[in-house]
Structures are given as structure tokens and as C-alpha cells.
From TrEMBL:
Name this protein carries in UniProt: SOCS box domain-containing protein
Species per Swiss-Prot/TrEMBL record: Albula glossodonta (roundjaw bonefish)
ANK repeat boundaries on the chain: 103-131, 143-175, 220-252
Pfam families on file: Ank, Ank_2, SOCS_box
InterPro entries tied to this protein: Ankyrin_rpt, Ankyrin_rpt-contain_sf, SOCS_box, SOCS_box-like_dom_sf
Pathway: Protein modification; protein ubiquitination
Length: 395
């Protein structure tokens, strides 16, 4: 019994020694331990992980607080966390398993989450599986994603290029049927700061250049364009539309991207709702159902230029009593000239011939308005008119 206890203490001491050598990147000590002891190179440690870098816990499972602050990890995971590149190389040269995930993540996932390009390159060059998900398909974990998804979520252009060059599938799906493009589009807006991420825009550009399918839908039938519209991200919306995104695709609730912009235009302080509406309509988006147009005024009454763009997309639309109710008195007074023109035009009188000619040209071009009108040999002022550029007054 005493001999067994003594051996257990010795094993524990050796394991601690091995862990500490990995953490301080003492490659010589790591090599010495591997060659002079019988320690398993793939031994699993319990290490501090207060930032949940290593953990991939299943949603809905309860764990005590002290368990959440630590995670299981093998030597390679530890090396990635502590940037111990030389020790990692020793482990790999001695046959360490590169794709195991004792707590749900492979070393490659961890390297991606800590944005360590050196480790990503090292792991890929030693055979890390670039299309492997966080958890097995048979699990119920809703966070399942490949390293490419992780790179898209965090906006890491260098990692995107590395993964694609090492065989990552550009349209690989996670547990929610999201592609990396859909994920990058969603995470392009920093909600707290209300700022758009240039890195996420670059990731989207790279994925499109690598051949990502722009109209693939996730489990709720939303496309990348729906996500960009929800963020009111005009830069990304233009990128997706110019890549051929369908502006008329509906999600599981029957909402197209233009309805997403309508829902959030008033709360996206750094977004430009009017430009988003203009982009979508110039790429063939379905217009708001006329009997429901009062909802546009409820949502956008403070943005008369956006209202003007939407009204001018119809040959003629007639106002109802709900329109005036939807516009608060203080807003009506602030933009009185504009709203007086709205109610004067949106009555029983027909629109001008100039407007009807605009509608006829746009109807012929359908989804090609944005590119087709710019190709016409017409003055720039007429081009802006055809593309629904707002003028501050409706006639």
C-alpha cells in the first residue's frame, strides 16, 4: 500500500514537472522528461482556464464555479495557451497527438481563439485537421464549429488564408448550418461600440474570392445578406450584392433583408439605413407591401430620406389614415415640408411623367439597376435620379 502511495506521489510530481516545463517553454527539459521517464506524451492536465479558451461545455449542463475556472488539456493545448512554440515542436517531433480534444477543442481551435498565427502554421504543417469541428456530429452542442468558423467569428484574415490553403472547405457548415461567410457577416458589428470591423469585412472579401456561395442559408433560412442587413452594414451589403446575393430571399419567418433593415435602422447609430434601402432596391429587393407602409413610417419617421427612397420605389402609393398616426407631431413639424409633399403626392393624383419613366426603366432592369443604370450614357444627375438618390422632397 505504501509503495502504491509513493508511486502515485511520484507520478503526480512528474506530471507537475512536465506541465511547468511546457508552461515556461523549457524545450530541453521537455525533451529530457520524454526520453528519461515513462510519462505519456499525451497525458491530460487540469489547468487554469478562467477565460474559457480551452473549454467547450455543452449548453444546458450545470457545472460548479470551481470547475468552470479550470479545463482539461494535453501538452499541445498548454503550449498554445502559453505560446511555448519550441516545446510544442518537441512534442510534435516525438509523436504527440495533434487532433485530440480532451475538453472539446483541438490545439488548432485554441490557436485560432488566441490569434496565434505561428502556432496555426506549425499545427497545419504537422497535419492538424482543418475541417474538424469542435465536437462530434452526434453531440447536441450548439457551438460546433470548425477552425475556419472560429477565424471568421473573430475576424482573422491571416488564419482564413492559412486554413483555405491547407484544404479547409470554404462553405463548411457548423451545427446551426452557418457557413464561415454567414458567421463573419454577423460578427462584423461590435454591438457595444456600434462599430463595424474592417477585419471582418476583409474576411468576407477573402471568403468570396475563395468561392464562398453567397446565398447559402442557415437553419433559420437566413443568408449572409440577412446578417449584414440586421447590422445595417452598408459596406458588407454592397460587397455581397455585387457578388450576386439575392435580395429577395426570405428567412423562416418570411422576412427578406429589406425588412431586417427596417427593423433596426433606428437603433444602428453608425449605420446608414437610407443607403442600405437604396442598395437593396437597386439590386431587385421586393418592396414593402403597400398596405403595410405605415410600419415604415413608424420605424423611419425620423429619417425622411429613407422614407423618400422607399416611396419613390413605387409607381404610385396611396396614403392611409395610419400614415399620419405613425408620424409623431414633433417629427412632422421638424420635417413639415417633406411630409406635406408626401401626403400631397401620395393621394389620388398621379405621379409625374418623369417619375413614371424612372419606374419603367427600373422595371426593365430589375436586379441590374445598380450596374445597368451606371452603364447608360446619361448625365450624372439623371443617373442619381434613376438610382433613387433622395432629394429631400417628393414630386
Amino acid at each position: 500500500m505504501e509503495e502504491r502511495i509513493s508511486r502515485s506521489k511520484a507520478d503526480k510530481k512528474l506530471k507537475t514537472r512536465f506541465l511547468q516545463a511546457l508552461q515556461r517553454d523549457d524545450a530541453e527539459e521537455v525533451e529530457n522528461i520524454l526520453h528519461t521517464t515513462n510519462i505519456d506524451i499525451n497525458t491530460v492536465f487540469e489547468v487554469e482556464d478562467k477565460s474559457f479558451i480551452l473549454a467547450s461545455y455543452k449548453q444546458g449542463y450545470w457545472l460548479p464555479g470551481y470547475k468552470l475556472e479550470s479545463s482539461w488539456a494535453m501538452g499541445l493545448h498548454v503550449c498554445v495557451m502559453y505560446n511555448s512554440l519550441e516545446s510544442a515542436l518537441v512534442l510534435l517531433e516525438n509523436g504527440a497527438a495533434i487532433n485530440r480534444k480532451p475538453n472539446g477543442k483541438t490545439p488548432l481551435h485554441v490557436a485560432c481563439e488566441v490569434s496565434n498565427s505561428d502556432f496555426v502554421t506549425l499545427l497545419l504543417n504537422h497535419g492538424a485537421r482543418v475541417n474538424r469541428a469542435l465536437v462530434d456530429k452526434c453531440s447536441d452542442n450548439n457551438d460546433e464549429e470548425t477552425p475556419l468558423h472560429t477565424a471568421a467569428r473573430f475576424g482573422l484574415p491571416e488564419h482564413i488564408a492559412l486554413y483555405i490553403c491547407h484544404g479547409a472547405h470554404v462553405d463548411v457548415l457548423n451545427a446551426r448550418s452557418e457557413t464561415p461567410l454567414i458567421m463573419a457577416a454577423f460578427w462584423s458589428l461590435k454591438i457595444r461600440e456600434q462599430e463595424y470591423s474592417p477585419d471582418h469585412h476583409l474576411v468576407c472579401r477573402m471568403l468570396l474570392d475563395y468561392g464562398a456561395a453567397v446565398d447559402l442559408q442557415e437553419e433559420d433560412y437566413k443568408t449572409a445578406l440577412h446578417k449584414a442587413a440586421w447590422n445595417c452594414d452598408q459596406v458588407l451589403m454592397q460587397m455581397l450584392l455585387e457578388a450576386g446575393a439575392d435580395a429577395r430571399i426570405m428567412d423562416i419567418n418570411g422576412c427578406s433583408p429589406i425588412q431586417y433593415v427596417l427593423k433596426v435602422a433606428s437603433v444602428r447609430s453608425t449605420g446608414d439605413g437610407e443607403v442600405c434601402f437604396q442598395l437593396l432596391l437597386n439590386h431587385g429587393a421586393a418592396r414593402i407591401y403597400p398596405p403595410q407602409f405605415h410600419k415604415v413610417l413608424y420605424a423611419c419617421h425620423q429619417f425622411p430620406r429613407a422614407v423618400e427612397i422607399l416611396i419613390n420605389s413605387y409607381e404610385h402609393i396611396k396614403s392611409t389614415k395610419k400614415w399620419r398616426v405613425a408620424i409623431p407631431d414633433f417629427t412632422y413639424q421638424e420635417h413639415r415640408e417633406f411630409y406635406d409633399s408626401v401626403f400631397a403626392v401620395c393621394s389620388n393624383t398621379p405621379r409625374t411623367l418623369l417619375h413614371l419613366a424612372r419606374c419603367a426603366i427600373r422595371a426593365q432592369m430589375r436586379t441590374r439597376c445598380h450596374s445597368g443604370i451606371k452603364a447608360l450614357p446619361i448625365p450624372q444627375s439623371m443617373e442619381r435620379y434613376l438610382l433613387l438618390e433622395p432629394e429631400g422632397f417628393i414630386y
